[in-house]
Amino acid sequence: MAKRRKLVVGNWKMNGRLTSGLTLAKDLADKALAERPLSYDLVICPPASLLWPVAETIMGSPVLLGAQDCHRANHGAYTGDISAGMLADLGCRYVILGHSERRNGHGETGAEVAAKVTAGHLAGLTTIVCVGETQDQRMSGKTEEVITEQITSSLPDKYQVSSLVIAYEPVWAIGSGEQPEVGVVRQVNKLIRKVLGSVGEVVQVLYGGSVAPQNAESLFAEPEIDGVLVGAASLNSDGFWAIAEKARLY
Ligand code: PGA
């Protein structure tokens, strides 16, 4: 079995204005250009408002562009939404889907996420599907059940294996400074591969939740963790680069 490549993804969420966002993107592009070729994949996911200016800023550098959500339809009367085809048009290669902030804040169901995965793959995007249990679910011993249900419901019957990434993001670890032990992430990532079945060994399974420069290395060192999805710490170029550079070692 070929070694899975590490993947480092920055999720800016609803942060960044034109000046700050472009400064951050340019800093990263410069750092990545100086280090190229990278032995891992590096992706930034700015808010929709910054996708195009960031695309222009990182063009020609090893930094790849991703978005934070897409609509399931290709076009049409969906006020406020953006289709996967539109994202691809701007140079996006990745799209984050089913983040807990969308599942919980926007009532996104597994079926909706699955439809978005199909839309993303049709547009040529790699979809990063997020799953994770809440603190209550964890405390009541339901982690396995919740992860199994989320993976099963959030993937369409047919999808492109090479365009699928899963991110295990325990809801309680997001933005809290808390994290599960690496051994716990290992077990959950193994479970995710088991639920994926025969393709489990080729799909990259990431970890996300309070990833920071000081805890990144132990995550990359674990063979079951193929990379990280970084929120707050991706908003600072030195900090995010310090995380990314740890991926080079594995
Ligand atoms: P965090 O967010 O790194 O700020 O915890 C991670 C995420 O929500 O993807």
Search tags:
TIM Barrel, 250 residues, alpha/beta, binds 2-phosphoglycolic acid, 41% helix, 10 helices, eight-stranded parallel β-barrel, 8 strands
Give a description of the structure.
It is a single chain. The chain is globular, with a radius of gyration of 17 Å. The model has no long low-confidence stretch (mean pLDDT 97). Helix 2 links the parallel strand 2 and strand 3 (63-67). 41% of the residues lie in helices and 16% in strands. The protein contains ten helices and eight strands. It has helices at 18-35, 51-58, 84-89, 100-105, 110-122, 135-139, 143-154, 182-196, 213-220, 237-247; strands at 7-11, 41-45, 63-67, 94-97, 126-131, 164-168, 204-208, 227-230. Helix 5 packs across helix 7, helix 7 packs across helix 8 and helix 9 (213-220) runs parallel beside helix 10. Bound molecules: 2-phosphoglycolic acid (PGA). 2-phosphoglycolic acid binds at residues 11, 169, 174-175, 208-211, 229-233.
What's the short story on this structure?
This protein is α/β, with parallel strands linked by helices and 250 residues long.
What small ligands are held by the chains?
2-phosphoglycolic acid
Give the C-alpha Rg: 17 Å
What portion of the residues fall into strands of 2 or more residues? 15-25%
Helices and strands, in order, run as: EHEHEHEHHEHHEHEHEH
Low-confidence stretches: none
